[in-house]
């Protein structure tokens, strides 16, 4: 009787884990997933191990409508939402869609900072989990994605870097980002989210 019970329990757990695995796949957000008035606000802070604060402030994004077209309004500009949700074609993207626990890829980005310094970020990415995560804006189901690699720039800077993104499908973006590099820790956390 006990062995029959254990077999039944094992089959039940296997079925539940199979169902959960199917639910843990998230495609890239589409234009229809966004609504006018949807707003995100993050608080960010970057501090060296010596206690020097290099970044401290807030960032926000809002979906607005102009002439019947949706845009994402940032501090700097309004970006057409159609461009943001365009299917990712890069072989080394920030997010490799669809997201799924266990998925791995390489993220590579080449950039130029405000002062003209050119740089590159190259990291191995892995989706570690999908579970409830709590930040200042609330509790959301979120993927934990770890990025490990290097940041280099044209001024000779080179550092090992690890980023942890908590990406929440419900809000279509990260709810927390933690970056550790050499003597610097940067944390950005969603503090407000509203659909209207």
Walk me through what this model shows.
The chain is mainly beta. The chain has a single domain (2-194), classed as YmcC-like fold (Beta Barrel), CATH 2.40.360. The protein is built from 2 helices and 12 strands. The longest helix has 22 residues, at 2-23. Mean pLDDT is 89; it is low at 1-22.
List keywords for this structure.
196 residues, YmcC-like fold, two-stranded antiparallel sheet, 2 helices, disordered N terminus
Biggest sheet details: 10 strands, antiparallel
Shape: globular
Strand content is over 45%
Stated plainly, the CATH topology is called YmcC-like fold
Write down the overall mean pLDDT: 89
Which secondary structure elements does this structure contain, and how are they paired or packed?
Blueprint: H1 2-23, E1 25-26, E2 39-48, E3 53-66, E4 69-73, E5 78-80, H2 81-84, E6 99-100, E7 104-112, E8 118-135, E9 138-153, E10 158-168, E11 173-181, E12 184-194
Antiparallel strand pairs: 1-6, 2-3, 2-12, 3-4, 4-5, 7-8, 8-9, 9-10, 10-11, 11-12
Quick take:
This protein is mainly β. Helix content is 13%, strand content 56%.
């Amino acid at each position: 009787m006990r062995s029959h019970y254990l077999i039944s329990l094992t089959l039940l757990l296997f079925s539940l884990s199979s169902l959960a695995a199917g639910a843990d796949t998230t495609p890239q957000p589409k234009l229809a997933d966004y609504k006018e008035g949807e707003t995100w606000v993050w608080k960010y802070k970057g501090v060296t191990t010596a206690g020097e604060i290099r970044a401290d402030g807030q960032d926000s994004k809002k979906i607005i409508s102009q002439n019947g077209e949706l845009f994402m309004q940032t501090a700097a500009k309004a970006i057409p939402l159609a461009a943001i949700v365009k299917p990712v074609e890069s072989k080394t993207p920030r997010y490799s869609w669809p997201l799924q626990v266990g998925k791995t890829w390489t993220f590579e980005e080449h950039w130029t900072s405000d002062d003209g310094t050119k740089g590159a970020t190259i990291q191995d990415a892995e989706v570690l989990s999908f579970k409830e995560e709590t930040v200042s804006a609330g509790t959301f189901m979120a993927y934990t994605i770890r990025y490990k690699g290097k940041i280099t720039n044209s001024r000779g800077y080179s550092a090992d870097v690890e980023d942890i993104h908590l990406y929440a499908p419900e809000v279509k973006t990260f709810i927390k980002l933690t970056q550790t590099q050499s003597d610097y820790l940067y944390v950005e956390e969603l503090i407000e989210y509203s659909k209207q």
